[in-house]
Design goal:
This protein is mainly beta. It is 8% helix and 25% strand. Bound molecules: MU-OXO-diiron and calcium ion (2 copies).
């Protein structure tokens, strides 16, 4: 019998997982989940109030027009073991990897000896996408929800990954568990004490979703036979979320975590399925060798064996051939309800999702969600809900049921960009026409099969291959959608209109606006990354030392219409000048008197300003704000020798080696005023 029914309460676990349950995890079977909750009342405290944000900015008449201008001077590049932020601002370390969320976790040990139990009850590793959920609309008290994309085994363990000297295989189950628990998502209650933000240890909201946490699946693959495994014979349960990169959030107060490079965690040494070949699931090995521990004497419920998706038994009920089918999705989480389960929203497609951002809300019109597939020559997708937007759903009584309303039923489209500046959203449904005049129904027998091989279906309808789509962001002023194309140095032979540079080492940002129908749009390129001394074909946006950048990745608008661009650069010509960084621009200011939008160019290069530079070795990612924009949170991922001090601007002393810790950084204005203006 399924542990879950289709009624909305199916998302609620009965009991908040006891904080000490990890101690029992390996000696007991799963608890049967019951309905009802004593802790659900906590969520009553949590008014989300997103749509009230406009009360806190300059848009006092809710006209959609704001009058902010950038109020800081662009800073020079930097290459140190410290962060640098614009004059007049502070940058403090908050919630680094291994910071305990619950008392059961030991404090961080600088020698790497924290246990797997510590890790399951502490901040994960390699922070990425993130969002701030206010408690009762507060800008000094909220829930910080943080993605943990992947791990650095050398930093995670005292001496890196342990392997059998003869076979080269992983041989330490405790290490592997720690690695699985360092993945996923953290929810941390944070409060501002007037000087600093701090994690409130043991707050009942604090929780971890890890690479092993049970989750439910919703949409076309809900309870589908394609999800049946030895562990979940009815296909109702998937274990874990992996490689959580960019993020999103919803108007009803939930978090969206996005599964990016999940194929690398699985292996099929037999005959791979078409979707596995298309997405690049390997036939020889897994990224960290978790499957090496299959059959370990301490293994519980095939916790390691499940990463080997080779068909081995007589049917799917005897092996894990379908385990990877539960990965590759947008996953919705309700941080306000610590008893709730995460829900994989399969209707939004199964790719290497980077971010997920919803389009401008219009009462009575469908909701839209945009998501990019971050790999070379992959595509941009749009999901359009069947349900029409009802503003009352901004404050629902059941947030995950509201998620089901808007994210489980609808149509998934993929983008075709045409050279004339228009484009078409091509539906991915059984009756969609392919480029050879057939229909997707000739290849796929159900919507679930299309979702499982989303990229393969998109190939058939003629989508436009892009230069690694990463985060998207929607301008709160006019609804235009921006998406970073981070780079594509393998584009050696053929360009297309939205990806016009061969050997695109520096990346660019594509912008589009929806057309009169659900299937039409217009587009342009907003800015090209480049070194300042690049030739005319390279430095197409006229960047200078004060705003040169490469490999745009993280992207977000704040509530006032300032767009923040974060980089994950590997291009030498810019790297020689500066570490990864964050810049700001107000696209509204690039509209001329006739209403025509301008791209950034040599005439207005100062409109794009460098605000922040990270420490050596890092990428700058993850960005969110308090409702009043006085605190900005961003993440430093995979730094080299950082952080040394809680003041993130303090450089690690020369000659001192620090075990690197990804961390959230809080940026505030020294006078406590709104950031950026
Ligand atoms: Fe995880 Fe595409 O960056
Ligand atoms: Ca990224
Ligand atoms: Ca990246």
């Amino acid at each position: 019998m399924s542990k879950f029914t289709t009624d909305p309460t199916r998302y609620n676990k009965t009991e908040n997982e006891p904080f000490d349950s990890v101690l029992n995890k390996y000696i007991s079977r799963r608890d049967v989940l019951k309905s009802g909750s004593g802790i659900a009342a906590l969520s009553m405290l949590s008014g989300f109030g997103l749509l009230g944000c406009s009360d806190d900015d300059n848009d006092s008449d809710n006209s959609g027009e704001t009058s902010v201008t950038l109020g800081f001077e662009s800073i020079a590049g930097s290459k140190t073991d410290a962060v640098v932020v614009a004059a007049g601002y502070t940058a403090m370390v908050l919630a680094p990897w291994a910071e305990p969320l619950k008392s059961i976790a030991s404090e961080y040990k600088p020698d790497g000896t924290n246990s797997s139990v510590d890790q399951e009850n502490a901040m994960g590793m390699h922070h990425d996408g993130m969002y701030y959920f206010p408690i009762d609309g507060s800008s000094t008290d909220g829930l910080l929800v943080v993605n943990h994309e992947y791990i650095d085994q050398n930093a995670l363990h005292p001496n890196g990954a342990t392997r059998d000297p003869d076979t080269g295989l992983r041989n330490d189950a405790e290490e592997i568990r720690k690695e699985i628990f360092a993945h996923g998502v953290s929810v941390a209650r944070i409060q501002f004490d007037g000087s600093n933000w701090n994690v409130v240890k043991d707050d009942p909201h604090n929780r971890r979703f890890t690479g092993a946490t049970e989750m439910v699946v919703s949409g076309p693959l809900e309870n589908h036979e394609l999800l049946q495994t030895k562990y979940s014979p009815d296909g109702s349960i998937v274990r874990g979320t992996l490689n959580n990169c960019g993020n999103g959030f919803t108007p009803w107060g939930t978090y969206l975590t996005n599964e990016e490079n999940w194929p690398g965690y699985f292996v099929n040494t037999g005959t791979r399925t078409e979707d596995q070949v298309r997405i690049g699931l390997d036939d020889e090995d897994t990224r960290y060798g978790w499957d090496d521990l299959a059959g370990d004497p301490t293994e519980v419920d095939d916790e390691f064996a499940r990463f080997d998706v080779t068909a081995k038994g007589a049917s799917a009920l005897e092996d894990y051939r379908n385990e990877a089918n539960g990965h590759g999705y947008i996953v919705e989480m309700d941080p306000y309800d610590p008893t709730s389960m995460a829900v994989k929203r399969t209707a939004l497609g199964r790719v290497r999702h980077e971010g997920c951002v919803y389009g401008k809300l219009v009462e009575g019109q469908p909701m839209t969600f945009y998501t990019g597939h971050d790999a070379r020559f992959e595509y941009i997708y749009k999901f359009v809900s069947d349900a029409a937007w009802d503003p009352d759903d901004a404050n629902p009584s059941n947030r995950l049921a509201t998620g089901a309303k808007y994210m489980d039923a609808g149509t998934l489209y993929v983008a075709r960009f045409d050279a004339d500046g228009t484009g078409a959203w091509l539906p991915l449904t059984l009756d969609s026409v392919t480029t050879t005049g057939g229909m997707l129904g000739d290849t796929f027998s159900s919507l679930a099969e299309i979702i499982l091989n989303t990229a393969g279906a998109a190939d058939l309808v003629g989508a436009t291959p892009m230069d690694r789509p990463e985060w998207g962001a929607v301008d709160p002023i006019d609804g235009a959608v921006y998406m970073t194309m981070t780079n594509n140095t393998r584009r050696t032979e053929t360009t297309n209109a939205p990806n016009p540079r061969l050997n695109n080492a520096y990346g660019h940002i594509v912008r589009w606006e929806e057309g009169d129908s659900l299937t039409s749009f217009t587009w342009d390129i907003f800015v090209f990354g480049s070194p300042a001394d690049g030739d005319a074909d390279t430095n197409r946006s006229g960047l200078s030392d004060l705003n040169q950048f490469a490999s745009p990745d993280g992207l977000a608008f704040d509530s006032r219409g300032i767009m923040w661009i974060q980089t994950d650069n590997g291009a030498d010509a810019v790297e020689e000048y500066t570490n990864d960084q964050m810049l700001a621009v107000i696209p509204k200011d690039l509209t001329d008197s006739s209403g025509t939008k301008q791209v950034i160019n040599a005439d207005n290069q100062t409109s794009l300003r460098r605000f922040f530079v990270g420490p050596n070795g890092c990428e700058v990612t993850g960005i969110c704000f308090t409702p009043d924009n006085t605190s900005m949170f961003l993440n430093i991922q995979h730094p080299g020798n950082f952080p040394y001090d809680t003041d993130a601007t303090v450089e690690t002393p020369a000659g001192m080696d620090i075990r690197p810790r990804a961390t959230t950084i809080v940026v505030r204005k020294a006078d406590g005023g709104p950031i950026g203006v």
